[in-house]
């Protein structure tokens, strides 16, 4: 179900035993993957980093710097790669590689030079590194309702962020520009719905990310501009 943005919201959520068990179970799966790709310094982002998980929460990772993709794929061989894609949200956005594992986990990484805001996007939603994940830490972040999730010892606090952009940017250690941009994008999505992505190319088994990116750039000036 699509999550609507929420205004004038402040609420404390106390976790029961089943919520802590669910969080621990999902995080153990995340740690297994992160340990396999630790050389690439991945972050885990979203609800699993914040702690406000549900049974269908996605386990999503992001690698900030362009990796040697064949080395990344080799590191994931034991787990099993289900799908590899090249994606771009709009002609102006970062071109990314995406690897989906058979367990449903997704690893995303830039395959063209990234801009600061494009990296901060992942920290806006809450992001955590492996060593902090192993210690059981949780990180603040903003969910798709534009609600700031602030971890507490017994659960978390939910707070709406509109009108608090400067404060939220300091809490999350991101620029105020990304906070304003996400508010604009998610509020607009409430009104007109989600639009399709500009590029979503699934790779065949014998294709490499670099090879397919070059082929796309040769044909598409928008992708070539970001390449």
UniProtKB/TrEMBL annotation:
Molecular functions (GO terms): AMPylase activity; ATP binding; metal ion binding
InterPro entries listed in its UniProt record: NT_sf, Nucleotidl_trans, Polymerase_NTP_transf_dom, Type-VII_TA_antitoxin
Source superkingdom: Archaea
Chemical reaction(s) catalysed: L-tyrosyl-[protein] + ATP = O-(5'-adenylyl)-L-tyrosyl-[protein] + diphosphate; O-(5'-adenylyl)-L-tyrosyl-[protein] + ATP = O-[5'-(adenylyl-(5'->3')-adenylyl)]-L-tyrosyl-[protein] + diphosphate
Keyword Magnesium attached: yes
Alphabetized UniProt keyword annotations: ATP-binding, Magnesium, Metal-binding, Nucleotide-binding, Nucleotidyltransferase, Toxin-antitoxin system, Transferase
Enzyme Commission designation: 2.7.7.108
Every Polymerase nucleotidyl transferase domain range: 39-77
Names of the cofactor(s): Mg(2+)
Keyword Transport found: no
Family designation: Belongs to the MntA antitoxin family.
The name this protein goes by in its record: protein adenylyltransferase
Organism per entry: Candidatus Methanofastidiosum methylothiophilum
């Amino acid at each position: 179900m699509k999550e609507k943005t929420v205004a004038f919201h402040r609420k404390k959520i106390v976790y029961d035993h089943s919520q802590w068990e669910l969080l621990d179970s999902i995080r153990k799966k995340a740690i297994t993957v992160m340990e396999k790709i630790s050389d690439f310094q991945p972050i885990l982002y979203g609800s699993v980093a914040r702690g406000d998980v549900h049974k269908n929460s996605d386990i999503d990772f992001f690698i900030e710097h362009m990796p040697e993709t064949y080395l990344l794929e080799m590191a994931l061989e034991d787990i099993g790669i289900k799908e590899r894609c090249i994606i771009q949200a709009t002609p102006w956005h970062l071109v990314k590689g995406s690897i989906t594992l058979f367990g449903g986990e997704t690893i995303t990484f830039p395959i063209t030079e990234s801009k600061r805001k494009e990296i901060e996007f992942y920290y806006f939603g809450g992001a955590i590194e492996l060593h902090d994940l192993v210690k059981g830490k949780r990180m603040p972040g903003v969910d798709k309702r534009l609600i700031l999730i602030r971890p507490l010892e017994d659960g978390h606090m939910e707070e709406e962020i509109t009108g608090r952009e400067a404060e939220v940017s300091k809490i999350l250690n991101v620029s105020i520009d990304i906070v304003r941009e996400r508010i604009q994008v998610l509020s607009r999505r409430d009104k007109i719905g989600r639009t399709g992505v500009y590029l979503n190319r699934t790779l065949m088994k014998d294709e490499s990310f670099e090879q397919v990116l070059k082929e796309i750039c040769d044909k598409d000036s928008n992708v070539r501009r970001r390449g």
